């Protein structure tokens, strides 16, 4: 039985369009599943982008577009080898060049898809920078689509505050200082200022370090925060480290705080198989995407 309280939402979206979107979200999720230290990254970036867009005064339709684009922003990494994605030391120049193809590769992957208009700007342009030093097109300032400017801030913040194989995470204060220091060069001024306000008022605390609403990413004692718990899981259920494969059992410490206890067993192939969190994806569609999907097929015009 799940230990996470949540209610059921019901989508009134066009069924065919909803199915197309779910397929794209599963594809994006499969990228995240290949990297052991990025569990929950897409959910976090999408939730932060949704909050940021709403705080900045965007319409609910545009907030939905931002949330969807944020969830799939790294879909182009499907074409990047796992050896590069999971490398534990700095990438070579050639490897960086390969990583830098993921934005345009994602745009090519979406070509002809009826949902492309919802997410193309975020996928293609989330690594552009206001000073023109970004990629793939070297866009400047307001040339960068609004959705991409929002996603860029949330993506960078999550990368800075997450454990990585090549180094520990920044503190929230350090990450916010980094954003503040790069306003106008790496980050859009308007949206960065809104983001800083959200962070300083505690609006992001329930997102950082989580993989779903109220569900924290737990730590493997050997590898760090690599244990992604699903909403439907409860005490006594098992989770496996995405890096070492170690089995853990969900339990609570003497203070009632959820923890993962090592069993000493290493998971087999079936245990370690990447299975998309379809329940999370469906909740995302029901919550974040229902506004724009409810408008029907015109979004593909």
Structural account:
- This protein is mainly α and 301 residues long.
- It has one domain (15-213, 276-300): Hypothetical protein af1432.
- Helices cover 45% and strands 10% of the residues.
- It has helices spanning 15-34, 41-55, 60-71, 82-85, 93-99, 102-110, 116-125, 146-160, 172-181, 189-200, 269-272, 278-293, and strands at residues 210-212, 215-216, 218-220, 224-227, 238-240, 246-252, 258-266.
- The radius of gyration is 19 Å and the shape is globular.
- The N and C termini lie far apart (44 Å).
Task: Give a short synopsis of this structure.
This protein has 301 residues and is mainly alpha-helical. It has one domain (15-213, 276-300): Hypothetical protein af1432, CATH 1.10.3210.
